[in-house]
Amino acid sequence: DASRTAFFNRVLSGLQQREGFTASAGSSVPFAAFWLGNMVRLPEKTSGQPSNDLPYCFSSFVYPGFFATLRNPILMGRDFEADEPDPVVVINQTFARQIFHAENPIGRLVDFRPNANTAYNGASAGARRVIGVVKDTNEDLLSYNTPASCAAFFPYQQNPVKSMVLTVRSSNPQAALAAVREEVSHADPAVPLVAVQSTSQQLKLTRGPWEFQAWFAALSAGIALFLAILGVYGTVSHSVRQRTREIGIRIALGGRPAHIIRAVTKKTLATVGLGIAAGLMASFWLSRSMTALLFQTKALDAPSMIASVCILSLAGVMAAWLPARRATRVNPTIALRQE
Question: What is the pTM of this model?
Answer without folding.
Answer: 0.63
